[in-house]
């Protein structure tokens, strides 16, 4: 398991941590290298070990402590907290828990020097309980399998969860950013699946209005056939301006949009930028060799010199034209 995958799973476990439950993640061979979190009534509180509990070569350097501060940890204090610490409000988003997981990974990997997630073990337990809780989806070994008394699975970390979270917080920007990049599915018939180009949009009636139905995953749709589409393809092929769009109907992330809103969410195609015309280069004057003569020819008869070029001064010097010879 890579650190990025471990951070994702840790964020999911933090988001699902129940009240008065503690999660400790520590190095397998050095129990003094650890991070921990506990769900309290008004916050999710997290700690990472400080020099108050380390000695010798395990002591954090000034550079280590600078990394801790820059990543978001708050320094220990007297009389408490004696560890590096941080917290989240009781109501926090999925993204907030993911950021906290990244902060905890920084402490483990970049400061405490844990080489890989497989070098970690964990303990999870209720503060008033007697046994450990096995986290079936965490991907780490438990510190003491003999003490496991219960098991818990993580909440699904899927697009529907993040959409529902964004909707609950009123974060329209995040909701629509997720929607625009999602691989959407639509209920379909067998013929639609075989020939998607000729498939019709599935509709339903809500409050007397016609809605096109889309879902953000086959699981959100439930049982039945489906075909895939994207939000951009949906908007470009919109069949009727009077119709509206129902996203994840019947789920916590359900949102309704009219056709105008659907069209506004699609970025306008950028017009090609015409390159500015390149001006012609200014002509470079040609300097004639010293003594070059400028001749006059009346059309018939002999040519007559009228000027001589002075290359040093860059000028033409007139030449006196001799008077015609008399008889």
TrEMBL record:
Domain of life: Bacteria
One Pfam family this sequence matches: SseB
Domain TY-Chap N-terminal residues, every copy: 1-120
The SseB protein N-terminal domain, residue ranges: 160-263
InterPro entries: SseB_N, TY-Chap_N
Protein name: SseB family protein
Organism expressing this protein natively: Actinomadura barringtoniae
Biological classification of the source: Bacteria, Bacillati, Actinomycetota, Actinomycetes, Streptosporangiales
């Amino acid at each position: 398991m890579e650190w990025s995958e471990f951070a994702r799973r840790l964020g999911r476990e933090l988001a699902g941590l129940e009240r008065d439950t503690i999660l400790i993640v520590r190095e397998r061979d050095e129990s003094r290298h650890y991070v921990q979190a506990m769900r309290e009534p008004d916050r999710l509180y997290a700690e990472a070990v400080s020099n108050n509990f380390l000695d010798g070569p395990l002591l954090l350097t000034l550079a280590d402590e600078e990394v801790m501060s820059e990543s978001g940890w708050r320094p220990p204090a007297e009389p408490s907290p004696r560890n590096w610490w941080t917290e989240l409000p009781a109501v926090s988003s999925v993204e907030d828990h993911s950021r906290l997981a990244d902060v905890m990974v920084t402490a483990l990997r970049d400061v405490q020097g844990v080489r890989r997630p497989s070098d970690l073990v964990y303990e999870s337990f209720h503060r008033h309980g007697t046994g450990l809780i096995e986290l079936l989806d965490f991907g780490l070994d438990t510190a003491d399998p003999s003490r496991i008394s219960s098991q818990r699975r993580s909440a699904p970390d899927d697009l529907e969860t993040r959409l529902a979270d964004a909707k609950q917080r009123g974060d329209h920007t995040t909701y629509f950013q997720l929607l625009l990049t999602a691989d959407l599915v639509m209920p379909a018939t067998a013929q639609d699946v075989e020939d998607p180009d000729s498939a019709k949009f599935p509709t339903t009636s809500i409050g007397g209005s016609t809605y096109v139905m889309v879902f953000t995953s086959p699981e959100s749709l439930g049982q039945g056939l489906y075909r895939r589409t994207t939000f951009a393809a949906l908007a470009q092929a919109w069949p009727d301006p009077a119709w509206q769009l129902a996203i994840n109907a019947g789920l916590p992330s359900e949102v309704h949009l009219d056709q105008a809103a659907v069209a506004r969410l699609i970025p306008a195609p950028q017009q090609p930028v015409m390159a500015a015309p390149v001006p012609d280069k200014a002509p470079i004057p040609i300097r004639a060799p010293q003594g070059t003569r400028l001749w006059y020819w009346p059309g018939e008869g002999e040519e007559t010199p009228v000027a001589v070029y002075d290359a040093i001064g860059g000028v033409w010097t007139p030449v006196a034209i001799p008077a015609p010879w008399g008889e």
